[in-house]
Amino acid sequence: MSEQKNSPSGDQQSKQSGRRGRRRRGGRSRKPDTNSNWDLSQFEVAPEEGKLRFHDLGLPLPLMRGIADLGFKYCSPIQARSLPFSLRAHDVVGKAQTGTGKTAAFLVTIITELLNHPVVEDEHYAGEARALIIAPTRELVMQIADDARALCKHTELHVHTLVGGMDYDKQKRHLSESQCDILVATPGRLLDFASSRDVYLDRVEILVLDEADRMLDMGFIPQVRRIVRLTPYRENRQTLFFSATFTPEVISLADQWTVDPIHVEIEPENVATDTVDQKVFITSAEEKFRLLYNIIRQDEVESVIVFANRRDQCRRLQEKLQNKGFSVGLLSGDVPQNKRVRTLDDFKSGKLKVLVATDVAGRGIHIDGISHVVNYTLPEESEDYVHRIGRTGRAGKLGTSISFACEDDAFLLEPIQKLLGRKLDCVQPDEALLGKS
Length: 437
Known about the structure:
This is ATP-dependent RNA helicase RhlB. By secondary structure, the protein is α/β, with parallel strands linked by helices.
């Protein structure tokens, strides 16, 4: 059954009367025109067979300048396949992993639409979002917002974030200070703001649902349904829907929230594996911690993320590693958001050498320079393996992924290898790595 509202008359009338009581957005001086002395001749990209340039898409000049600053020249596969349609206002349903360039794909679409169809400032109210991006975790929201601000650097568009675990009044104050052109939010905090009438979603022009499978896993779909009902009818907005996996439940959601979408699928074996040296150590459950301890002690291990499947496993690993003298942070769903923020900042700065994480928390980690990823337990979903190893080997650098396979989880190797399209080297660890911990 489609996710549709009932007769528009009552809902729309109440929205119009509610708008009359809204505060106009706070005044703020406009940024000077920084694009008057810049043109595409300063960003030359030679045509290359089989590749689509951003130059070929007819993007607005201020956006092209942001793309030039970031050094983007050619579209990634998902960008090349989705942008020609999304830029013409088609809905898109994309199956894509982290690292494929999907964030830039939907941001380029949003920014182009907002620049090409500006609104009259006096008719734009505080908290009235033009584009809405919903993502499952605070970390992913902040990463998307950072990318959006970089692409919007030479525009007058404003990016806002709403996430749980952060100061509500501070986020509310930011909303009142400038237009809400692009709003990136987690479901729970967004509903808080919408319920308090601090955010209005009835004029959303573009809706992006990112990592729908994670939102499903984390139990957010009832909240997302309520949010979608606050936006215009699906025929009156553009919807971009992304998921790493396409279960029947995910497909059902895509059918409900989009209209005649273009389907784009990027296979995960194209993601981040070429720059990652992948190792699998065959070991016993009893030897795992000793092996982990000796790996982390090695000089070449500069920074490492250790993944485990369950939150209790992660907490025990953090405690045991701390007792061995390592600087260790924990990222899991039961850690308060403000603490997760500090932990991630400390890991980025090098204050923490080791980060222990679950898949849900680890999905939002986008940090260049992570030297190693250790899969203390193999993931139960093979797609999560690709997400995990994608935390290393970024920004053109080589990385190392080490997985432990014991008698309890070795059977999980086969679906991972099938997904990757190749066998993984499985070896016994050296005696030195099994020494005393």
